[in-house]
Amino acid sequence: MTGASLPWTHSPVKVGLVGAGPWARGVHARVLAAGPETRLTAVWARRAEAAHETAAPYGAEVAASFEELLDTCEAVAFAVPPFVQAELACRAAAAGKALLLEKPLAMDLPSAQRLVDAVDTAGVVSQVVLTSRYNPATRRFLAAAQSVEAVGARACMVTGAFLGGEFATPWRLEHGALLDLGPHVLDLLDAAMGPIVRVRGAGDPRRWIELTCEHASGAVSQASLSGSVNVENGITRIELFGPHPELVYDGADIDHEESLPVLRREFATAVRTGKSGELDVHRGLHLQTLMAQAMEG
């Protein structure tokens, strides 16, 4: 029996949600309200009508202000642009609330560092929503990667999300694939191949960007990122090479719905034990540091 299927013996964690966009409606609210580990208490967003549409299906309150949201909960989940998250999450941490954070932590490295400092000062639990990392298939791939001696890797994460639709949001269109897709790919390469110590980037993040990563082991990996190409369903693929047979991670084989109950359970467990897991703000800061390096070229 997996940890995700064991009975939940604690009281549900009361979570307030910041944001009412497509990701907040389609994922955060639905998952947090499903329980039994969590309970969605309230939603706050800049547009009250959108907050009501997000909260109503689950019987959650609509908070009139961010401060009112904090009064309803013991943890805060964020589904807003990075520059909004970085500022509000610092305030939530100072109020003693656990944080469920989107990636990237912030728009730039100094803002991400301020958020990490706020979390460390307050001593609150944090967790970053790197969705695929909670998937059983991803975890099997990463476990297999630990048993091989990879000397090189190539990765590809390309979508057409920026060409139109709900996720072609202003911050994504302005900053491109590095900040939006980069955290996922860099996290997986770092976890599979060992710590990345240096990243060099080439290209335009709003069109296509190539990353070359140097790992502490001496291995080298490369990643192609774009949100502006016409591909059906998007492509996520990682290939590890060495004296062993090629080890492949193919996102087409992943059911992302399997990630969500695991994410919820692990966040609630962290809140109830007071111990953040591996995918906390410090992981987010590491990824933000690598993206800052890539932007330097």
Summary, kept brief:
The chain is an alpha/beta fold. Helix content is 40%, strand content 23%.
Describe this structure in words.
The structure is a single chain. The chain is an alpha/beta fold and 297 residues long. It folds into two domains: 3-131 and 258-279, NAD(P)-binding Rossmann-like Domain (Rossmann fold); 136-254, Dihydrodipicolinate Reductase, domain 2 (2-Layer Sandwich), CATH 3.30.360. 40% of the residues lie in helices and 23% in strands. It has eleven helices and twelve strands. The protein has a six-stranded parallel β-sheet, with helices on both faces. Strands 8-9-10-7-11-12 form a six-stranded mixed β-sheet. Strand 2 (38-44), helix 2 and strand 3 (61-62) form a beta-alpha-beta unit. Helix 4 runs parallel beside helix 5 (109-122) and helix 9 (182-193) packs across helix 11 (281-296). The longest helix has 16 residues, at 281-296. It is globular, with a radius of gyration of 19 Å. The mean pLDDT is 96.
